[in-house]
């Protein structure tokens, strides 16, 4: 992640290079992250005002497009920074030298009305300096938010809650101590990550408590599908070096249920970080989280991490139900062989995905996860 957005875009928009595609074919290969990234580009292309195709034949499968900024030129007097934490209506913005407590320009709040928060952790922002007259406590005012890529989203009431923006990877942490570990939740996080243009990495923590090897076995399922995996323990140090190597590059959001050891893992990756860890505190029947807000941390070894509070329910409804098949990568080779072109792979006859489940080529619990997502999402 680059810590700050670039200045000096013209009023007419910015030029971007995007992959050229002949048609909207579905991604077919496992482990091919570029196909996932295209999903994000498609969204951005919706805002196109003009485009010029640079004819270089098949040698260059790219085209240059002008993406409209959507509003006036950015005032060159504005400062740039990255949102590292949200505190109610305030955002903590790191400008590279220090962290400023900023409010958000009202117009931004109304423009992104479908969003629960117009600004979120990881956002690249432009801000003006605040003043201290008459008891004003704000140090800055966020005027503009850069286009996002790599988001983790869920639904919150009728609106979309972007938990974090501008990350390239989600470390999906599960606990081998769970009895049994919950594959459905892992699958939900994988879908949420892929839908937001983020690469999933599955981390089975508390390996020291994996007495019957059930955690390691569950992890094997994801190795077979082709996702990077880690087996870790904060207690005996297993997998921690691999985790460090992973986190060193780019920005990673640490996701997973409360209590699986997300904060504890980050504390061993960087001793001295002192993130609060602890058992879930029961309060009026609802689990209370030890991590209360997402926070962007710049690691000493390099890389950025966002420690998130455990999300009790990851509502996937910002994702359309016919998109789900795209995010179950092992389904993709079978999808073109279904009898009906719009096959949802649930009740339809002649479904090749279901046939693959029966043939043992697709894990039945993965298929079950898919069906659950389809059943709870109606559009
Ligand atoms: N045995 C064992 N306990 C762990 C491990 N990682 C975390 N824990 C414990 O699990 C509890 C929850 O950890 P925490 O980091 O707060 O979880 P978070 O809610 O995901 O951030 C704490 O009591 C930790 O000490 C591990 O690898 N092995
Ligand atoms: Mg935590
Ligand atoms: Zn089908």
**pLDDT average, as an integer?**
78
Q: Note the gap between the termini.
A: 35 Å
- Could you give the order of strands across the largest sheet? 13-12-11-14-18-17
- The domain tally reads 4
C-alpha-based Rg, rounded:
22 Å
User: Which molecules other than protein and nucleic acid are bound?
Assistant: guanosine-5'-diphosphate, magnesium ion, zinc ion
Q: What is the count of β-strands?
A: 18
CATH H-level superfamily of the largest domain: P-loop containing nucleotide triphosphate hydrolases
What's the shape? globular
Task: Bin the strand percentage.
Answer: 25-35%
Question: Top keywords for this entry?
Answer:
5-stranded mixed β-barrel, Rossmann fold, globular, alpha/beta, OB fold (Dihydrolipoamide Acetyltransferase, E2P), binds zinc ion, binds magnesium ion, 8 helices, 18 strands, 379 residues, 4 domains, binds guanosine-5'-diphosphate, 6-stranded mixed beta sheet
């Amino acid at each position: 992640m680059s810590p700050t957005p670039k200045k000096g875009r013209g009023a007419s928009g910015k030029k971007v290079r995007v992959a050229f595609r002949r048609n909207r074919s579905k991604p077919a290969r496992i482990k091919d992250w570029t196909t996932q990234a295209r999903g994000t580009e498609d969204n951005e292309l919706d805002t196109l005002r003009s485009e010029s195709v640079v004819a270089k034949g098949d040698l260059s499968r790219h085209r240059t497009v002008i993406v409209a900024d959507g509003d006036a030129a950015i005032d060159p007097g504005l400062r740039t920074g990255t949102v590292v934490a949200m505190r109610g209506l305030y955002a903590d913005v790191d400008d590279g030298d220090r962290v400023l407590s900023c409010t958000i320009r009202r117009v931004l709040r109304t423009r992104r009305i479908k969003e629960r928060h117009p600004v979120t952790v990881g956002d690249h922002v432009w801000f003006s300096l605040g003043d201290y007259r008459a008891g004003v406590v704000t140090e800055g005012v966020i005027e503009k938010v850069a286009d996002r890529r790599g988001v983790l989203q869920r639904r919150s009431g009728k609106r979309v809650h972007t938990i974090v923006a501008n990350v390239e990877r989600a470390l999906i942490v599960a606990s081998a101590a769970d009895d049994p570990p919950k594959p459905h939740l892992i699958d939900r996080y994988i879908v949420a990550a892929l839908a937001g243009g983020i690469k999933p990495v599955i981390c089975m923590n508390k390996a020291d408590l994996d007495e019957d090897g059930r955690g390691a076995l569950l992890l094997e399922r994801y190795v077979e599908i082709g996702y990077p995996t880690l087996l870790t323990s904060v207690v005996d140090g297993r997998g921690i070096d691999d985790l460090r190597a992973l986190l060193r590059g780019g920005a990673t959001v640490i996701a997973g249920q409360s209590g699986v050891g997300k904060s504890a893992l980050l504390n061993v990756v960087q001793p001295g970080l002192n993130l609060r860890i602890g058992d879930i505190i029961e309060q009026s029947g609802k689990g209370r989280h030890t991590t209360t807000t997402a926070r962007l941390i710049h690691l000493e070894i390099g890389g950025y991490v966002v420690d998130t509070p455990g999300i009790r329910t990851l509502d996937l409804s910002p994702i359309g139900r016919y998109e789900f098949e795209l995010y179950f990568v092992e389904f993709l080779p079978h999808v073109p062989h279904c009898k009906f072109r719009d096959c949802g792979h649930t009740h339809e006859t002649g479904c090749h995905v279901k046939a693959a489940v029966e043939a043992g080529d697709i894990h039945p619990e993965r298929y079950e996860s898919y069906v659950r997502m389809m059943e709870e999402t109606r559009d």
